[in-house]
Amino acid sequence: MAVYSPKPAKEPPLLERGPIAWVRHNLLSSPFNIVFTILGIAILYMIIPPFVKWAILDAHFVGSSKADCGGDGACWIFVREKLNMFFFGFYPHAELWRPKTVIAVILALGAFAKFVPGLHRLKLALIVAYPVFAYLLLHGGHFGLPLVETSKWGGLLLTLVIATVGIVLSFPLGILLALGRQSKLPIIKSLSVFYIEFVRGVPLITVLFMASVVLPLFFPEGINFDKLVRALIGITLFEAAYVAENIRSGFQAIPKGQYEAADALGLGYWQKMALVILPQAIKVTIPNLVGTFISLFKDTSLVMIIGLFDLLAMVTVTANDRDWLGMDTEGYVFVAFVFWIFTFSMSMVSKRLEKKLNTDKGN
Amino acid sequence: MPAFLRNEKIRGILYQIITITLFVGFLFYIAQNTAHNIEQRGIKTGFAFLHATAGFDITESPIPFTPQSTHWDVFKVGLLNTLIVSFWGIVLSSLIGLLIGVWRLSGNWLINRIAAAYIETFRNIPVLLQILFWYNVVLATLPAARHSINFFDAVFINNRGFFMPELVFGPGSWLIGAALFMAVVAIYLLSRWAKKRQEETGEQFPVFVTGLVLLVLLPLLAYLVAGRPVTAVYPELHGFNFRGGKTFTPEFLALLFALSIYTATFIGEAIRSGIEAVPKGQKEAATSLGLSPMQQLRLVVLPQAVRIAIPSIINQYLNLIKNSSLAAAIGYPELVTIFAGTSLNQTGQALEILLITMLTYLLISLIVSLILNWFNAKMKIKER
Q1: ipTM of the complex
Q2: DSSP label at residue B277
C-alpha cells in the first residue's frame, strides 16, 4: 500500500522572500516609490557623510588647548575641557563633590525604588526628604559646608534644579486649579478659568519678565527674592496652568457614573476627588502630562534671557573664553545633544507608562 | 459642628466668601506694597510715557520710525514685526509640516524613517537653542558681502542676510489685482456650477485645471493690457553692503527658520495622527465603491482627517506666535525685544509695559481661539 508522504511546500520565489522581498515591497514597489528611495538616499548622502566627517573623522579628541585643534573638524577637546562648566556652571571647583553627590544619591534612590520591592513608606519618606537634603548640600552654609550662592549654580545642574522644582510644584497647583475649574461654586470657578486662560494666552518670557522685574515690587522692602527663586516662581505659575488643562482633559474622560458611585458610597468632596476621580483622571492624562513636562524641560532654557546661567547659556559663556573663541558650534551641538537625551528619554518613559497603565486591554 | 455647616449650599457660600476675602486681601496687600515701592524708587506711573519720545532707533521697521517717535510707535512697530514673522513662520512651517507629515505616512521605508528622524530630532531640542544656533552659527558663518553666494545676480546670500529683488508696482497695477480677484470669483462660481451639474447629470468638469488656467491667464492678460506696470529692483553691491531690493536680516531669518523647523515637527505629527485616525474601513469602503486612490484621499480620508488635525495645527500656530517672543535673545525687533525690552529699560515702567504686552498676546490668543471655535462648530458632524 502506498504510504502518503507529504512533500514540503515549495519555497516562495526568490524575489518574494528575505531581504530582497523587503526591499522590493518597502523601497521599490512602484516607479514613484523608486523616485522616493533615490530622493531619500540623496538626502542622507547630503547630511550624514559631512556630519560624520566633521564630528568624528576630522574631529580632534586629544589635547588640552585650542592649538591642538586645526582644520575643519569639530574640536571636542573644548567640550571636554569645559565639561565642568557645562554641567555645574560657576560652582566652585573645590566643592564640585556636592552636586555630584546629589546626583549620585538620586540615581541610587531611583535604583532602590525600582529594584527593591515593598517598603513603600520608607521610599516615600526618602523621596520627601531628598529635596531638603539636596538643597542643604548644594546651598551649604550649615554643618561646616561653605555657602555657595545660587548665582554660582549653573549649567545642567541649574537646568535640572529648575525643571525638577517646576514639575514638583506645578503639579499640585495644577490639580487645585483643575478642581477649581470643575467646581460648581461660581467664584472659585471663574477665578480658576481666568487664571488658566490668562496664563495660557501669554508667552512664558513675559511671565518670566514679570517675575524678575515686577514681583519684587509686590512685597515689602526687605523681602528680597533670589533671582533663581523668582525664575522658579514664574515657571511654576506658568506651567501650573498647562498642568491644570491636562488634568481637566482627564476629568472629561471619567464617566459620570464614577461620581455618582462615589456619592452613593457617602464620600465627601475631597474623598471623592482624591480616592476615586483624580487617580483615574491622572492615569488617563499621563501622556499629556509628560508632554507638558517635556515642554517645561525645554522651556527652562528661557531663563538665560533673564540672566541665569543654565545649560544653554553656558555655550555663550564658554565660547567667549579668550582661549576658546569661536567654539559655539561644538558647544551648541553638545548642549543640543544633552537636551535631546533628556527629552527623548522622557518621551520613551511616557510611552512605556502608557502601556503599563493601560489596564483595560488584557495585561 | 453646628447643623447649618452640614448644609452643602451654605458651606459652598462660606468657601466662596473665604476665597474672595483672601483674594481681595492679597490684591490689596500687593497694591499697597507696589504703590509704596514705586514711590520709594521714584518710578513714574500711568500711561503718559506712551506719548513720550522713545529716543532710540529700530533696525527694521515696516512703518517709518525715527528716534523722535514715541513709545506708542515702538509698540506698533513691535506688534507689526511680531505679526510679520509669525505670518511667514506659519506659511513656512505649514509647508514643511505638510511635507514631513506626508513623508511620515509614506509606504517608502527610507522616506518614512527620514521624516521620523526629523521629527524626533527637532521636536526634542529647545527652540531657543535652535534660534541661537541659526543666528550664531549658521547665518554668522556665511561669507561676507563681497563674496556673497550669488543666484543669477538676483538673489544674494551673505552674513548680513538674504537680498532679493523687490517688485515695484507702477500705476495701473490695480488692474492685475482686479484680475486676480475676478479669477477667484470665477473659480468659485465655476466650482459651484460644476458640483450642481455633477449632482444632476453625473457629468464631471475639470475644475482644477480650468481654475489654474484662469488664475494664471487673467492676471497675465491684465499685466499686458496695463502696459507691464510691474518692475523688479535688483539688489546691488555698494561698498560693503547691498542696496535696493528686499532685505531679510539675519535676526529675522534665524527666528523664521528656527520657529518654522520646530513648529513643523508638531504640524507633521498632527497631520499624521489626523490621517491615521480615519478608520481603515473608510478606505476599504471607498475602494469597494471604485474610487481611485486620489479620489479616496480627496473625498473620503481628508475631510475626516482635517476635522481631527486642524484644531491641533491651529494651536501650533498660536504656539509659534507666542514663541516668536524668543526673538529677545537675538534682537529681532518684535514686541518683547523693543517694547518689553528697550522701552521698559528706558522708562522703568515695568508694570504698565508688561501689562500691555501680556494683554496684546492675550488678544491675539483670543482671536485665534475664536477662529478655532468657529472652525470646530463648522466641522462638527451634523447629526439629525
Answers
A1: 0.87
A2: T
